[in-house]
Amino acid sequence: MSAGFVALLRGINVGKGKRVPMADLRALLESLGHVDVKTLLNSGNAVFAAPRGAAPKLAAVIAAAIEKRFGFDVPVIVKSAADLDAMAAENSLAAKAADFSRLLTVFAQDPADLKSLAVLKPLLTKGEALLLGEHAAWLHCANGILESAAGEAVLGKVGRSGRGFTTRNWATVEKIRALMKSAG
What is the tens place of the pLDDT at every residue in 37-86? Predict the structure, then answer.
């Protein structure tokens, strides 16, 4: 029996480095035995079906295959459709966000790592909110992510802390969820 998953790659296709064409990513995932592979956008979002298994193991296998095929290390986080549904259920900031592109979702392969994002709280300014959930964290930057010190930190130094974070705005997360539902 297969289950739906999403692989979220961090830091690809930004600038000239770490280029991963989405057609090549789909082919790579299919070569690993995954089926119904679809990609969304050019930023490393791949939905696929795989035998039920541990998301961290799937992430490690995909990351190793990317390094072997493309010659560089790419952090990969894998979440199941059930994980994404649980995230949606606990994201109380979505109801308050007028623009989902200004609501970042922070993914971690190990949900225990999300607690470390509390370091962002002192950086919050008026119109910003941070929600640390059991399955993800959310940062709402009403004035724009690039205008936010907390947003800059989570996309930069905090996000590259070695804890395995990656981010997507909530609009993209909703598109991923819709793609997973249409495939399943």
Answer: 999 988 789 999 987 678 899 999 999 999 999 998 888 999 999 999 99
3-state SS string over the chain? CEEEEEEEECCCCECCECCCCHHHHHHHHHHCCCEEEEEECCCCEEEEEEECCCHHHHHHHHHHHHHHHHCCCCCEEEEEHHHHHHHHHHCCCCCCCCCHHHEEEEEECCHHHHHHHHHHHHHCCCCEEEEECCCCEEEEECCCHHHCHHHHHHHCCCCCCCCCEEEEEHHHHHHHHHHHHHHC
Q: pLDDT averaged over the chain? A: 89
CATH fold, domain 2-81, is Alpha-Beta Plaits (3.30.70)
Position 27 scores a pLDDT of 96
pLDDT at site 184: 57
Fold of 84-180: Alpha-Beta Plaits (3.30.70)
